[in-house]
Task: inverse folding
């Protein structure tokens, strides 16, 4: 029995790179695609932000579009993961407060929003880091070797 538990723990340790990689890849693709779409429709995005009463919509729209696109690419490669996750958390929080608030009737409604799931995954990446399969990890390892 102890051998099976030991083997199971070993297998889990071997696979512990996969969840953060999958989170980064999933979020990265979603944000890069969303940002790309926003960058190519800035006038519509600006109008939408204005309709949500987001201040300085003409500045916020290109900022959010660029952050989502380039932040998504950084997440895919695991570069500056913690750094880029924080402003994306802010963007998702604002999205929930401005665009999703009318749909929020109970706490369980919040858990059904994709933006909330993105928040949870971004928060996890901020706290736990990008995982072994990332440029952040490779750079950190290389820096430690050079010391």
Result:
């Amino acid at each position: 029995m102890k051998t099976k538990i030991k083997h199971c723990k070993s297998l889990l340790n071997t696979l512990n790179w996969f969840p953060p990689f999958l989170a980064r890849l999933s979020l990265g693709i979603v944000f890069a695609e969303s940002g790309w779409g926003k960058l190519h429709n800035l006038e519509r995005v600006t109008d939408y932000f204005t309709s949500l009463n987001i201040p300085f919509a003409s500045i916020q729209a290109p900022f959010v579009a660029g952050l989502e696109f380039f932040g998504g690419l950084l997440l895919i490669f695991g570069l500056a993961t913690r750094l880029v996750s924080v402003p994306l958390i802010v963007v998702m929080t604002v999205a929930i407060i401005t665009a999703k608030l009318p749909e929020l009737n109970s706490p369980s409604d919040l858990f059904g929003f994709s933006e909330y799931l993105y928040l949870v995954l971004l928060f996890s990446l901020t706290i736990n880091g990008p995982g072994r399969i990332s440029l952040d990890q490779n750079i950190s390892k290389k820096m430690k070797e050079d010391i």
The two ends are 43 Å apart (CA to CA). Residues 20-146 form one domain.
